[in-house]
Amino acid sequence: MQSASFKTRKADAVVLIILMITGYYCKTVCSETVHASVMNRLGGGEILTVHCQSKDTDLGERSVGDGDEYGWEFSPNVWGTTLFYCDLTWDGGSYHFDAYSFGRDSVRCETQCLWIVSGEGMYGLNGQTGFWEYLYDWQS
User: Might you report a single GO cellular component term (predicted)?
Assistant: First the structure.
């Protein structure tokens, strides 16, 4: 039969481990602020209309001039389900994309999720490599 003292120490150790894991998870997820930005590089003076939102926050519609950008900041939720999506429209077309999806971007973007909208498609900055990646093609 185990002593009450041993059971208490075992329970304390389990609680300590849970607190450590929760603290690490919250440090990596809860405390980080992410800056997201959509840059208009369509050229030719083209105005880009950007409407971004999450389940809880509608950022409204913005007109972004050629060469300008629109950005916002947020903190990912503790459940790891944060999603911001945007509708883009311009004279040459329209497109819907996820500007930030925790599952895809928590490592790739970490603190910055930057996008370039160009005539051929969209580029996203990979924060791990420092390179712009061609991610969305207007043809698809």
Answer: extracellular region
